[in-house]
Every structure is written in C-alpha cells, then in structure tokens.
Amino acid sequence: MTLLIIGLLIFFGAHSLSIVALPLRDRMRARLGEGPWKAIYAVISLLGLILIVNGYVDARAAPQLLYSTPGWTRHLMAVLMLPVFPLLFASSLPGRIRSAVGHPMLCATVLWSAAHLLGNTTLADALLFGSFLLWALLDWWSLTRRSPRALRMAPPSRWNDLIAVVGGLGVYLLFVFWAHLALIGVAPFTG
Hints:
Order of helices and strands: HHHHHHHHHH
Strand content: under 5%
C-alpha cells in the first residue's frame, strides 16, 4: 500500500502545481524552457504512474474490503462509463461537446473515478479512484479561478463531435470486450 500512496503523491504532486502553486509552476517553466519543463513533468508523472500501477497490483494481492455494493451498481458503472471516452476525445476536438462541457477531460475523470468507486470496494480502490476523483474536482474548481491557457487541439471541423462520439464509443467497446481484461486483468461484465 505504501508504494501506491507514494505513487499517488508523486503523480498528483506534479499534476497539482497549477492548483496550489501556479506562479511557481510558471516561473519554473519559464526558467527551464518549454521543452525541458515538459520532459521533467513527463518523467515525474511517469514515475508516479509506474509506482501507482505496481502499488495497486501489490495491494490487490491482499485486498482489504471497505464496503460492498449491490449487484445493480455494475450496470450503473457501465452507464457512467459510456461518455468517458467520447469526452476524452472531445477534449482535443473543438466542437459542441467541448463547448457545452467546458473541461471534458476532467468530466471524464470524474465519471471514470466515480464509476470505479461503485464497482471496486477495497482500500486500494478507494485510495486510487478516490484520489483521481478528488483531484479532478479540485482541478475543475481551480480552473474557475485562473486564466485559461491556450491548448493544442485538432482544427475546428463540423465532424469533430461525431468523431468524438463514434471514436469514443468504439474505444469504450474495445475496453469492455478486450482491453480491460488484457491490460488490467479484470473483465468488466463477468463475475
């Protein structure tokens, strides 16, 4: 469990600079330059992610049950997950979805983590998915208090929303029927 917690602290420490210390983040980026800043940020984030994955795998070997949920929550989890991948696509595709949601990647993170808290009931699950949920909500809130930054996105197109929905649902189906088991070791709709 220690490895999981250290990984979460490293990963969210890097991802929370804009929330808690935006001037410091901006000074560091200006001093280092855009390329080196992104490289350091990526290495720290990757290190945190590796520790999270290894810590979570270790914690799953000896799970500590926190709560149980009724069987119907699996269906609710599947429904909550439906918009996650389309929202992730929409975060880089300017269109009506992005305009309506404002921060589609954070919305996707909130839905993903909340859905997984419904279906995963151990201490490690609560730490992992609860951390992502809390971070996404804090970041979303902080975005209402800071100046928007220009983001790299695909060019505007009338097809962007269709691409986000069709592509996102395609990835959702790929995850449900193959990738989740292959990558995470759990089939979403079994057992």
